[in-house]
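stage 2 :: seqdesign
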């Protein structure tokens, strides 16, 4: 089995009963969660909104993965994820999002994080379980990397 690094998810950055007035509010809540665990500085929040205006971070299956622009890497202190669950859903440009996985990464770290998240979320059962998770420990378990067989 290939060794896969764990995703950088601090349990304090998991919020399972969030509510948002819309897409931008949800993105800012993700940014604040990343800021609260010391992963980013305040300007990263604006960079997350800027990224969303350029390209939607909606991934399908009710999941969005908001993250900052490339130029915002200078305000990222360390790689981190946050998971915010919106049980009532958020309108994301006509799509219904119930889970946001916010990403902050230095260097090329975002490519590894996006790849690992995509592999996890491509599993419909894991994506469904993530949308329905109501305990932090369950979210942490669901986001453990999938090991590849050699």
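stage 2 :: out
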């Amino acid at each position: 089995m290939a060794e896969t690094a764990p995703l950088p998810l601090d349990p304090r950055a998991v919020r399972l009963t969030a509510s948002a007035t819309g897409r931008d509010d949800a993105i800012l809540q993700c940014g604040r969660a990343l800021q609260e665990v010391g992963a980013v500085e305040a300007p990263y929040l604006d960079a997350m909104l800027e990224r969303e205006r350029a390209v939607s971070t909606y991934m399908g299956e009710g999941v969005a993965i908001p993250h900052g622009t490339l130029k915002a890497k200078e305000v990222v202190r360390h790689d981190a994820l946050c998971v915010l669950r919106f049980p009532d859903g958020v309108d994301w440009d006509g799509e219904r999002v119930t889970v946001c996985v916010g990403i902050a990464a230095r260097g090329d770290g975002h490519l590894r994080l996006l790849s690992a998240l995509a592999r996890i979320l491509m599993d419909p059962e894991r994506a469904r379980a993530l949308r329905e998770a109501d305990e932090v420990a369950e979210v942490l378990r669901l986001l453990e990397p999938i090991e590849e067989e050699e």
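stage 3 :: structure notes
- The chain has a mean pLDDT of 87.
- The longest helix spans residues 23-36.
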